[in-house]
Inverse folding.
């Protein structure tokens, strides 16, 4: 397993490779997580981290972000879910950690470049895609 160490924690990058057929079977059994669902999960974990660790134990913001990242360290099944997740993490970071923001922006740019935004959004309902693109525009990715 390759590890990417960030100020907020460690993100695991699995080196396990599945065949296209295995990936297709997994995706058939898993519904795509919506942007709203991913934001909700992130905010729930951010809230829990702040309540349980920041307020009660004095954790700084970067540790709370590490806590949120750790809750979903294995990532998601689809590239669009991972892209949305990375955008959500960038927003939750508040821009308060300049080096991490630079790394995070690069991860997002690389994902868009590798897969193409239109291809990533091909299976996303129009309204959800518009909301996501709006956020990407505000963050100056498009």
């Amino acid at each position: 397993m390759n590890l990417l160490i960030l100020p907020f924690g460690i993100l695991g990058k699995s080196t396990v490779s599945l065949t296209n057929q295995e990936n297709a079977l997994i995706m058939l059994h898993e519904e795509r997580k919506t942007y709203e669902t991913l934001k909700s999960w992130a905010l729930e974990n951010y809230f829990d981290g702040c309540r349980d660790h920041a307020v009660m134990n004095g954790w700084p913001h970067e540790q709370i972000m590490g806590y949120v990242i750790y809750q979903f360290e294995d990532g998601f099944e689809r590239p669009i879910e991972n892209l949305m997740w990375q955008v959500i993490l960038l927003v939750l970071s508040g821009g308060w950690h300049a080096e991490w923001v630079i790394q995070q922006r690069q991860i997002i740019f690389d994902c868009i470049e590798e897969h193409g935004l239109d291809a990533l959004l091909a299976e996303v309902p129009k309204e959800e895609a518009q909301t996501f693109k709006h956020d990407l525009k505000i963050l100056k990715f498009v």
